[in-house]
Amino acid sequence: MKRRIASWENGHSRPDEFYGSLLCEALGLTAAELGLNQATPGQDAQLLEARYPPSPDAAIASVDQLWRADLHGYEPLLLSEPAQPAWSDASLRWLVAPEPAAPTSTPRGGARVGSADVAMVKATSDTFSALDDRFGGEHARHSVIQYLSRDVAPLLTGQYSDGVGRALFSAVAEATLLAAWMSYDACRHGLAQRYFLQALRLAQDGNDRRLAGSILSAMSHQATFLGHYTEAATLARAARMGISGVATPTLMAQFHAMEARALARTGDKRACELALAEAARFLDRRKSGDEPEWITYFDDAELAAEAAHCFRDVNSARQAVEHAGNAMSGSHVRSDFFVTMVLADAHLRAGDVEEACRVALDALDLGEQVRSARCVSYLSDFRRGLVAHSSSPAVRNLIEQAAGYRMWEASEFKAAGSRG
Q1: For the chain, how many structural domains are there in total?
Q2: Which domain holds residue 94?
Q3: pLDDT by residue (tens digit) across 23-49?
Q4: Which of 66, 258, 272, 380 has the fewest CB atoms below 10 angstroms from its CB?
Q5: pLDDT in tens, 280-306
């Protein structure tokens, strides 16, 4: 029996129906949460459903179940696709939601939760965020989910005052947003969408409208990446409308930039340029002391990177090159990789193959420590553009020099659906 359990734990086999049921009963978890892939239609269907939770209690139950299933490798969840209607449904439900009631403690009673616990969640989330920024979403994603499932989930069902409850829900919303970004960066798109939805509900219950707006903006980013440009623009506009009374200049700049990204992909250059101009106007008005700490990364270099993406997508290669040249932060490794690949792509579109290949090698140096499926997709897109120039000595030289890079090898097998 010990050998059989060890085999299950190591993923070499799965329990049969009888033993699987016993495990679920003994551990108080569903088959989905244990990653057994056994059909429990009611609970599993609810787990896989992409929807905005209708209440705080539903949000707690849903996100806890998602964390557990993710932690135990439940494949239908990990391989799930995003649901297109969920984007519009979530933004509408959030926009028309009544004022949130104060989060209440569980009637069962649990550990007492205080402001120190909330501070611990925020500090831990910040640490994981720094790792994500430097090494990519695939590096520590599992560790984040483990922390949320085992350490944070019990806090949500603990005992806390109204004020602590709101702060707790806001902190957990921010941590769940990080889990969503990391899942998105790993191209676990259905899972990422579900985390975004849970984070949005938690932010609502924490009465943190600024964070909720930022979550909608992140959902817009993912929708653009996946080719749903109308939904992406709508999400960015909903973010702008929904927090208009409390929005800071930097948040407004980001929302306009996300709308510009979506509009660029539709080919509407004029509307895209207007949105970028609004983003720049708002960013010029920012005052760092008035901004939430989690949005201060969005600065002139970040806006230049967004503009570079936009002008690349509307086939204005020279403008893309100009903006990409102003976008290197030097402190955000993954972001610098993205913009360096955009610069390489823009040079290629402008017909400067030699410079494009030189810049691509710079990007490979940057990306050597990054574990990100999105980064691989950028490189795959660039490699498809190289096909038309396969006889160029610069391309042959790039292929020879890039052969030893991990990300270059991964891009050979990556079928990217769209750019980021």
Answers
A1: 1
A2: 49-207
A3: 566 656 565 555 555 445 455 677 888
A4: 380
A5: 999 999 987 889 999 999 999 999 999
